[in-house]
Amino acid sequence: MKVYEDKYIIVISSNSQATYLYNELMKKKINIEFISTPSKIVSGCSKSIIFRSKNKEDILSEITSNKVKIYGVYRLIRTDNGYEYIRTDFSCI
Q: Could you name the domain of life of the organism this protein comes from (predicted)?
């Protein structure tokens, strides 16, 4: 059974930009999680931020104003075997 959660992952191109964006979002008290990017999305050691759709505008604003380069945005789908990820974009959230 698939459950489409209201959670999204932003995969950020560099670890330093990911850390910077995370800190800026935390200063604004936006509810986010900082994680290592799941290997099903990207192999390597990149970092990602999990957020909910209600925070989309605040996060997009920070990405734009700080010129953060993102690899992609993915929606989390919980399955019986863990998670799947569907690539999306901010306009679809």
A: Bacteria
